[in-house]
Write a structure and sequence with these properties.
Order of helices and strands: HEHEHHEHEHEEEEHHHHHHHHHH
Oligomer: single chain
Number of domains: 2
Helix content: 40-55%
Strand content: 5-15%
Distance between the termini: 36 Å
Shape: globular
Largest sheet: 6 strands, parallel
């Protein structure tokens, strides 16, 4: 009987919104050792390849040479663009696109965390376009084909290998900006858990929190659907069960986190992100705080803020995690406590002030956060400047 009631409640929740448009990624390979398949996949698109990666990771751990070898073994010419920095700039994208055009690149292989993958998406777009990458930022929607892109993620976060988003940084304005559209979704995604063996504990934690934030934000989003909720809830369950093991170095747990990050990417591809991202971008652009860490610091406040308009969803999520009392406010508190315990167990501080953010920045923080309308408008509860100010005040003091 309880199961029947649960399904009735879920149906009631979705009966007015049981319609959606969904763009499916073209091909996903999730398998240990699948890096060996990169050359074969790339050869389907042409003979001239470009590897896009960060400045140190791929070369330091031998992955760059492995990629070069598998591409060369299939007869591809290999060029390398290893200039991608954390929070990649618009200038980096434009620099990479020049290399694409100068060498008539047929296929791009992106290897790294969200920064490398997002930069590669921009490079793949500008590789077939004229002008500046600024001309194609949101609200422009990328519908057209771009240079074929193979995405190989190396962290437990972002899910960029399957999303229609590329988050870039305007260094002049100290502001995050985004490319959006189905045209930048990678044609092939290769997820090889082997790459996670060298992922350090802090990045395992930060990127896992990024994925957790994606899952919960998509779940609460105005644009959520029954399909995105399936991805979101499963991702939350996996991350909360495996984050500590992954943080301690277990490759099995990291593999599950890898999968959960992928599911969360599928969720935000449908439903997008909400206020956590809108408020978190300031922390990255003005304090160089890792994006996943910024999300971790703000996620509990988003749950608390949105519970009054998402009671049923909060209860359902608590049920999925086995902690529901049936009361939305109590269940929200239990969900928040799970997140706070995870943060403590992986060494994430309680207060924003512990990360160097100052109280005298508050008005600047609020004014910048309110400019991220794409995220705030997607939030299930309307967000005012006063709301943002209150949340930042709480976060600065760890009042949760």
């Amino acid at each position: 009987m309880r199961l029947i009631v649960k399904y009735k409640r879920s149906f009631h929740l979705f009966k007015s919104m049981l319609k959606f448009i969904r763009h499916n990624p073209r091909k996903i390979i999730f398998e240990k050792g699948s890096l060996e398949l990169v050359g074969r996949e790339a050869a389907r698109f042409g003979r001239r390849s470009l590897i896009v990666c960060g400045r140190t990771f791929a070369r330091k751990y031998g992955f760059l040479s492995k990629l070069e070898k598998t591409l060369s073994s299939e007869g591809l010419e290999v060029y390398i663009f290893d200039k991608v920095e954390p929070n990649p700039s618009l200038e980096t994208v434009e620099s990479g696109s020049k290399l694409v055009k100068a060498n008539n690149i047929d296929v791009i292989v992106a290897f790294g965390g969200g920064s490398a993958l997002d930069a590669a998406k921009g490079i793949s777009l500008l590789g077939v376009k004229e002008g500046s990458i600024r001309d194609y930022l949101y609200p422009y929607i990328v519908e057209e084909d771009t240079i074929p892109l193979i995405a190989i993620p190396t962290t437990c976060g972002t899910g960029s290998e399957v999303t229609k988003y590329a988050v870039l940084t305007d260094t002049q304005l100290r502001r995050k900006c985004v490319l959006v559209g189905p045209g930048i979704v990678p044609l092939v995604s290769i997820l090889d858990p082997v790459v996670l063996e060298v992922l350090p504990p802090n990045l395992t934690a930060y990127t896992s929190f990024d994925a957790l934030s994606h899952a919960i934000e998509a779940y609460l989003s105005k644009l959520s659907t029954p399909i995105s909720d399936l991805f979101s809830v499963e991702s939350v369950k996996i991350i909360t069960n495996h984050m500590i093991g992954g943080y301690k170095g277990s490759l099995e747990d990291k593999t599950w986190l890898f999968y959960a990050s992928h599911l969360a990417g599928l969720a935000i591809n449908i439903a997008g992100t909400i206020m956590v991202h809108g408020l978190g971008y300031y922390l990255t652009t003005h304090h160089n705080i890792h994006h996943g860490l910024a999300n971790a610091m703000l996620l509990p406040y988003a749950i608390e803020f949105n519970t009054p308009v998402a009671e049923e969803k909060i209860v359902n999520l608590a049920e999925a995690l086995g902690v529901s009392s049936g009361d939305p406010l109590e269940d929200a508190r239990r969900l928040i406590n799970i997140i706070l315990k995870l943060r403590k167990d992986v060494g994430i501080p309680l207060k924003l002030s512990d990360l160097g953010v100052r109280e005298d920045e508050l008005e600047l923080m609020v004014s910048i956060a309110m400019k991220y309308e794409r995220n705030l408008k997607n939030n299930p509860r309307a967000v005012s400047a006063s709301d943002v100010r209150d949340i930042y005040k709480k976060a600065l003091r760890g009042a949760i």
